[in-house]
């Protein structure tokens, strides 16, 4: 009897295993055709899924970007059979969801047990670099460079990490390029580096090489245009800028360079056209306003030039009137009336749109100075320029103007 039960159990186990094997085979057929939804539906029909089915579900969810479900199924797999492979996949899923702390924890645990897993080491190094753990990233990348010195990406990432801590990245970038002369990212970094240290001929070598590989690369086109401008080759600058424009790359940097280049070749209409495009993005761009003023001067349009230079000066001046207003109020609390008047005056001189400062100056002058003409002058200025700003303040100012004028009139009579 016992033998029959065992045989029956064995048959059921084999049948279940065969059934799940069959499910996995069908799933693989769906996946080959790219139909992951049918694959998931097929797998989810299993009432008591095996570890293989759970793992397959997790893999599909991970590959299709549904990381929450992937984590759920990988956790189920790990609960049945904890392995570093599953833990590594969990780490990747947490990384993709943005939970970098958990991802770094899991991946570092796996790496501790598998120090020769170079792919994991590389991924963890990049993760450290992206999360401001630069020293840890550099440590891993230095180990990778020793273990696999022929991989250009390891050298490139090392250069990136060194740059973050203000160390010279030149050697790793050059090594990456030496190992792979089509490594575009290294070429770009080398071009930027040589531009920064003003070795423009070397920068041009890498820029031109980059454009040979990808003639529409926006980074190299920008650098090329910039370098041509610095070499005073303005017509060539415009050629490269037009290539950027044709690629629908119309940034303030591009428009500024267009404006400057057209100005240098005496094409003032186009210079104005592009400078005004910059102003649409930031109407307080004082450098561009200054350049527009220069264009108007070159065109002998002195009226517009004057207005533009005024605007440039106004926007360059820092506004600290509010600071002086608060300082003055504090000085009043400390009974330092003369200092408060001085602070309010400095604030008003800085920003004459701040009518509250002028009103404070008028009232304090009224109380502090025996010569009422000082307060009268401020009250009149307030009424003339800001009568619509504050009804109560305006009524008070008008009443004091009347009273002071009357006082001054009476005083004049007495003196006679």
From TrEMBL:
InterPro entries: TPR-like_helical_dom_sf, TPR_rpt. Pfam families: TPR_19 (PF14559), TPR_8 (PF13181). It comes from the Bacteria. SMART domains: TPR. SUPFAM superfamilies: TPR-like. Residues 1-19 form the signal peptide. Keywords: Signal, TPR repeat. TPR repeats lie at residues 51-84, 252-285. This is Tetratricopeptide repeat protein.
């Amino acid at each position: 009897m016992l033998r029959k039960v065992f045989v029956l159990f064995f048959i059921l186990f084999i049948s279940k295993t065969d059934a799940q094997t069959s499910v996995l085979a069908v799933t693989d057929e769906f996946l080959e055709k790219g139909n992951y939804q049918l694959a998931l539906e097929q797998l989810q029909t299993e009432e008591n899924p095996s570890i293989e089915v759970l793992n397959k579900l997790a893999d599909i969810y991970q590959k299709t970007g549904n990381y929450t479900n992937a984590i759920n199924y990988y956790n189920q797999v790990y609960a049945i059979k904890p392995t570093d492979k599953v833990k590594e996949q969990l780490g990747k899923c947490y990384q993709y969801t943005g939970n970098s702390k958990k991802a770094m924890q899991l991946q570092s645990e796996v790496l501790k047990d598998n120090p020769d897993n170079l792919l994991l080491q590389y991924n963890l190094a990049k993760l450290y670099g992206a999360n401001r753990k630069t020293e840890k990233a550099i440590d891993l990348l230095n180990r990778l460079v020793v273990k696999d010195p022929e991989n250009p990406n390891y050298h490139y990432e090392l250069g990136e990490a060194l740059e973050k801590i203000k160390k010279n990245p030149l050697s790793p970038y050059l090594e990456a390029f030496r190992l792979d002369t089509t490594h575009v990212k290294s070429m770009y970094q080398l071009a930027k580096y040589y531009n920064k240290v003003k070795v423009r001929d070397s920068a041009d070598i890498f820029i031109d090489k980059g454009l040979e590989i990808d003639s529409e690369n926006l980074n190299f086109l920008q650098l090329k245009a910039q370098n041509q401008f610095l070499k005073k080759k303005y017509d060539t600058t415009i050629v490269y800028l037009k290539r950027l424009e044709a690629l629908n790359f119309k940034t303030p940097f591009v428009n500024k360079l267009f404006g400057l280049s057209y100005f240098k070749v005496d094409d003032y209409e186009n210079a104005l056209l592009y400078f005004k495009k910059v102003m649409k993005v930031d109407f307080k761009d004082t450098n561009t306003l200054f350049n527009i003023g220069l264009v108007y001067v070159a065109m002998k349009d002195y009226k517009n030039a004057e207005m533009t230079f005024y605007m440039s000066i106004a926007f360059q001046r820092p506004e600290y009137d509010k600071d002086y207003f608060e300082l003055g109020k504090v000085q009043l609390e400390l009974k330092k009336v003369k200092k408060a008047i001085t602070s309010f005056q400095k604030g008003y001189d800085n920003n004459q749109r701040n009518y509250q400062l002028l009103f404070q100056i008028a009232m304090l002058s009224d109380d502090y100075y025996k010569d009422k003409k000082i307060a009268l002058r401020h009250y009149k200025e307030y009424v003339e320029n800001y009568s619509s700003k504050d009804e109560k303040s305006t009524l008070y100012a008008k009443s004091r103007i009347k009273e002071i004028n009357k006082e001054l009139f009476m005083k004049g009579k007495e003196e006679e």
